[in-house]
Write a structure and sequence with these properties.
This protein is mainly alpha-helical and about 170 residues long. The chain folds into two domains: about 60 residues, no CATH class; about 100 residues, no CATH class. Helix content is about 60%, strand content about 5%.
Length: about 170
């Protein structure tokens, strides 16, 4: 075992655990796996499947960064798809306005010369699907930031999934 591995004790946070049968850390905690309470992972389904088997009693959480990234990617995909179909003048406007769409609605900048809220809303007038995608992004980001208990998170996520399906955004 390396000196770093020997410093890791049970009942401490382990930031990275590599699942290799020959890993001495795995063999040293094998009898304690059922005591792991929480695991944070990305959205790869295989991680969940493997970890559910290895840590049967743990609550497996998806790192919020991955939800945010998926929300942003989804909005970007809608913007890019729509942008391809627009005339050149609008396409360039939409391309230059990308950062406005990626900002949280409460972080949009407004002063005498710049009005990002108006800029965003102008895009929504042309493309209703873009508005729906933006609202879905805002909803999931709000949920991640504001909801802190598991049951409420489940209910809100179920409602968000239903809203996303009903939006019929391709």
């Amino acid at each position: 075992m390396s000196s770093k591995e020997t410093r890791i004790k049970l009942n401490t946070t382990v930031f990275l655990l590599i699942f290799k049968p020959q890993n001495p850390l795995i063999s040293s905690v094998t009898g304690q796996l059922e005591n792991v309470k929480f695991i944070v992972i990305d959205m790869w389904r295989t991680y969940y499947t493997v970890l559910r088997q290895v840590f049967p009693n743990a609550i497996i959480l998806i790192d919020r960064f991955h939800f945010v990234r998926q929300a942003v990617w989804s909005l970007e995909n809608v913007r890019k798809r729509i942008q391809k179909e627009l005339p050149d003048s609008l396409r360039i406007y939409f391309k230059k306005s990308r950062t406005v769409l990626l900002k949280r609605s409460d972080h949009l900048f407004v002063n005498e010369t710049i009005n990002e809220v108006r800029q965003r809303d102008k895009m929504f007038e042309f493309i209703p699907d873009l508005k729906k995608a933006y609202e879905l992004k805002e909803d999931i980001l709000w949920m991640i930031q504001e909801v802190h208990d598991l049951e409420t998170a489940r209910q809100r996520l179920d409602a968000w999934i239903q809203k996303a399906e009903e939006s019929k955004i391709p």
